[in-house]
Amino acid sequence: MKNLPSFTIQENPRAKRVILKISPHHGLMVVIPQGFSKKEIPKIIQEKRAWIERAFRKIEQRGLKPDKPRELPTSIYLPAIQKDFTFEYAPSQITTLELTQITPSQFRITGDTTNLEGCQYLLKHWLRYQGRVHLIPWLKNLSSETKLTYQQVQIRGQKSRWGSCSGRGNINLNYNLLFFRPELVRYIILHELCHTVHLNHSEKFYDLLAEFEPSHQKLRAEMKKSWEQVPWWAM
User: Fold this and answer.
1) Cα–Cα–Cα angle for 127, 179, 98, nearest 5°?
2) How far apart are CA 92 and CA 71, in angstroms?
3) What is the biggest distance separating any 2 CA atoms in the chain, rounded to whole angstroms?
4) For residues 16 and 32, what is the distance between their CA atoms, to the nearest angstrom?
5) What are the pLDDT digits (tens) for 150-188?
6) Contact 135/178 with Cβ under 8 angstroms?
7) What pLDDT does residue 2 have?
8) Which residues are paired to 10 by β-bridges?
9) CA dist 28 to 19, 50, 59, 101, 150, Å?
10) Which residues lie below 8 Å from residue 230, measured CB to CB, with a gap of 6+?
């Protein structure tokens, strides 16, 4: 059998048959029904090789270059807290995935580690937990420092916001802030705290923000490109 193109596997309990998907951002993805034998996948890819090659050519003709299949991280660095973490993956016959903490900085995911979406879910769950552990105390300390009070706080994984503040003074912080340097995280938290006084971006709001962060304009400009620092699995 000729060398097969690289691919990732996604198990979908709602799938009734094997589906091949090709995109610039994911490369070749094989979607299989739950319980389907992965040993059959190479044969299916070989049978569909002509179609796969045509699909890749069409993408390249559009000026795009298909990415390689996404790989799960074995090392994660969180600049906001300046800590390194390592992850290892232990495949087993058990389809259920489980995240285990080995040491304070070492973790292991066991089960069907070819289930990319399942592993991604556990990694995001871990990241949300890190957000609760580190971002919530950060918010409390800055609230005490600035005398700007809030009601409640939640750690979420928003797709388009780093943080938000409701009219009732409830603050949401994005756990992906952990991928930024401390100065940027501090700026975002101060930004949301100032919204507890001015729920807009008026001149008064920016005057208040400038009292606590004189470099807010420079930091704001830097944040516009910050999504590039967030790894694919955290999105």
Assistant:
1) 20
2) 18
3) 69
4) 8
5) 999 999 998 889 999 999 999 999 999 999 999 999 999
6) yes
7) 52
8) 31
9) 10, 13, 12, 32, 46
10) 176, 179
